[in-house]
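Subject: Protein entry, chain in single-letter code together with its fold tokens

Area: Proteins and the way their chains fold up in space.

Attached in line: The record itself begins immediately under this heading.
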Amino acid sequence: LVVEDEPLVRLVIAEALRDQRFRVVEAASAEEAVLALASGLAVDLVFTDVRMPGALDGLAFAGRLKRERPDLPVLITSGHLDRLESGETSAFISKPYVLSDAVARISAMLDLEK
């Protein structure tokens, strides 16, 4: 599940993942992602931006996922943070990221879950 409010950024990472044979669902906001998950959407990993419009940002969304679905890997990305605060259990990659690095990181996280 790719959660990114910037349409072009979301399209590029989603297509790069599809090129690697991942099944990708896209959401333009954390609220949209919450609704998709609540509808029963099964996902293996969430890749989310931090700064998004709406009441729920990416960090709050990741925190909610850690409480409700602690087994679900979350990779957070941001161009406004260098790292996550200590105690944060989600993985992090800073923007701008190299597309192949982001895909490799997601692949590695999914391989670890097996």
User: Anything to note?
Assistant: Strands lie at 2-3, 26-27, 46-49, 74-78, 91-94. The chain has a mean pLDDT of 91. Residues 76 and 92 are 5 Å apart (CA to CA). The radius of gyration is 13 Å.
